[in-house]
Amino acid sequence: MIEIRNIEKHFGDRTILSDISAxxxxxxxxxxxxASGSGKTVLTKCMVGLFEPDKGEIIYEGANMLGMDRDxxxxxxxxxxxxFQGSALFDSMTVEQNVMFPLDMFASGTYTDxxxxxxxxxxxxxxxxxxxxxxxxxxxxxxxxxxIARALVLNPAFLFCDxxxxxxxxxxxxxxxxxxxxxxxEFNTTTIVVTHDMNSxxxxxxxxxxxxxGKKQWEGSNxxxxxxxxxxxxxxxxxxxxxxxxxxxxxxxxxxxx
Length: 258
What we know:
This protein is α/β, with parallel strands linked by helices.
């Protein structure tokens, strides 16, 4: 579990984050959504230690990250997996080498042990035959799955995903969403997803934090979001006619069941 308490962040005279508090629970897909410039990226960077907030606390399983010494922060970061927006694979390395990279950097053990772990995570993301391929030889969806495998190889307790569906077609996006949700439940991972993809919000949004102008505007689940009366949230989520129609259909179905 990650708890953020009263987080504030300023750059000069600009207030980027203002008094944000939330709890990111294990075994759930915790989504951070909002328009460009709303503070999503800054909040995430504060949570992983790339930025230090000017005020507040970031609590990992009861321990305040901001009060940790260098060794404690290093140990915590080894429990954090990162899936980057552009996958961030090394072009000169094979899929196998990309996934093994964190093990070479942070893990002890023999090459055989590391190879076994790489095989396990590649199998888990359905890439058991891609070991020797280079990033240029695989599709965008496969690159995302390699990125997920690399994020999982150190068996993290916390998984951060930055726009995991960026640049993917709708069908492949559904595959990635399903994989992230399955892995989160399977390993009881505390998963944080920063996304603009409204289909992801509806499909995997167990817990959603909506930011507007650096403040937490709304918080809830994908089941609650369709009934929200927050106009700013509705303008953001249901901007397209398709999603507005989807909202109306879901509300009709919910009313029938009740």
